[in-house]
Design a protein that fits this description.
Elements: E1 14-15, E2 18-19, H1 20-26, H2 30-47, H3 54-71
Antiparallel strand pairs: 1-2
Length: about 90
């Protein structure tokens, strides 16, 4: 019997022993992760009921918001723009 929840833990998003969402969060800066999750939430809500069941799409959107909070700590530090370092000229 398949124990995967199509909203919280879809089987097609598992790689080896790690869920894809964990790999994605750990490869992104906090800003990238926020944008990724916001885009995902918007996509599920905009298509709600058109691809999958309406309630399932809204549930996936809600789950993405939970995942954002749950995995934000895995994000790598933000990279700074090296061009800004050492430049005291405020006109640029």
């Amino acid at each position: 019997m398949d124990n995967h929840d199509p909203v919280k833990s879809p089987a097609h998003y598992e790689l080896v022993d790690t869920e894809v969402v964990i790999l994605i969060a750990s490869c992104m800066t906090p800003e990238q992760w926020q944008g990724y999750c916001l885009g995902t939430v918007m996509a599920y809500r905009l298509r709600a009921g058109k691809k999958d069941d309406l309630i399932q799409d809204i549930s996936k959107s809600d789950q993405t918001e939970i995942l954002y909070d749950q995995y934000s700590h895995l994000c790598k530090p933000s990279r700074c723009d090296c061009a800004d370092h050492g430049n005291n000229d405020s006109t640029k």
